[in-house]
Amino acid sequence: MKRLLTLVLILTFPLFSYAADIINAELSADGQTLRILSGGKNYSIKGEGMNGTYIYNEIGAHMNSSSVVLNLKAPDSFTALAEADKAVRTKDGWRFSLNHANGPLVLAVSDKWRMKTRNYKGIELAVYFSEDNIRFSDEYFARLQELLDKYTGVFGDYPYGRFAVADVPYPYGHAMISMTLISDRIVGMPFMLNTSLGHELVHQWLGGAVSPGKGGNWAEGFTTYMADRLSADENGEGAEFRKQALMNILSNARQNEEKTALKDFSYNTDRSSQAVGYMK
Fold first, then answer.
1. What is the full DSSP assignment across 45-102?
2. Whole-angstrom distance, CA of residue 220 vs CA of residue 207
3. Which among 64, 83, 99, 107 has the fewest CB atoms less than 10 Å away?
4. At 6, is the secondary structure helix, strand, or coil?
5. Are 107 and 82 in contact (CB under 8 A)?
6. How far apart are CA 51 and CA 248, in angstroms?
7. How far apart are CA 221 and CA 26, in angstroms?
């Protein structure tokens, strides 16, 4: 009997350990409201954004597992993107699954996006670009492949099943798990492919797979060093990059001023926080 009980525990433990939280949600016709219908919860979230493109944060704040499935019912006019290892179009919306969430999910929707995907070494690369920017898709795919080869050689295997880049019609720039959102005005600018795209990808390891936790956000500084500074070094501009970083710190983040230590940094909100978080 004891052996039988032990066998049952061995066989069933993985099922309990890796059972995913299921979140069912429905997007309103105008894309501005998301209704959550799962986990004994029934509530609505207002999207942040404008002009047909909206972002929803803190989806699944009640989750008990790091594995999550988001079933989204959405109008055909909207394309949806969420933090995920896998994204699948369903008959009435989208299904997103993520094995290693480090907090509530982020969802973005838009009636402006055209989506393109490409598989590279088992990783799904995707762009969600507006009509004006979809012409840059091939350049982004080519650069992402270069960057994946570069950084998997530094950090090891890419931690997720996909990586997506999406544009939004307002000033924005933020990396989440498996995705990044950027302003549609900068998609075609050279610095995006040369430097910024690498910065967003490195965040998948530094800040995504390994999150800062409490006591200061070290992820931005480490990412800046491994992406922006490394890129400058490769272009023979490393000394100038460090000079500008030191000038930035001296001008905006002297230690004798309050709240300029790295332990106090969370996000970039002004020149002082940018110098502390990204350059120290």
1. EEPEEETTEEEEEEETTT--SS-EEEEEE--TT-EEEES-SEEEEETTEEEEEES--S
2. 8
3. 64
4. helix
5. yes
6. 36
7. 38
Nearest to 175 by CA among 271, 270, 74, 267: 267
3-state secondary structure labels for all residues of 171-213 = CCEEEECCEEEEECCCCCCHHHHHHHHHHHHHCCCECCCECCC
Q: Do 167 and 183 contact (CB within 8 A), yes or no?
A: yes
For 139-143, 206-210, 243-247, which range has the lowest pLDDT when averaged over its residues? 243-247
| CB-CB contact of 144 with 120 (8 Å) | yes
What is the tens place of the pLDDT at every residue in 92-114?
A: 999 999 999 888 899 999 999 99
- Is the pTM value of this prediction over 0.90? no
Residue carrying structure tokens 């940094």 = 265
Distance CA 191, CA 189 (A): 6
Q: Determine the 3-state secondary structure of 265 from DSSP.
A: coil
pLDDT, one tens digit per residue, over 201-225 is 999 999 899 888 776 778 887 888 8
Of 259, 101, 255, nearest in space to 178 by CA: 101
Nearest CA to 47 among 38, 57, 62?
A: 57
* Residue 21 to residue 31: CA distance in whole angstroms: 24
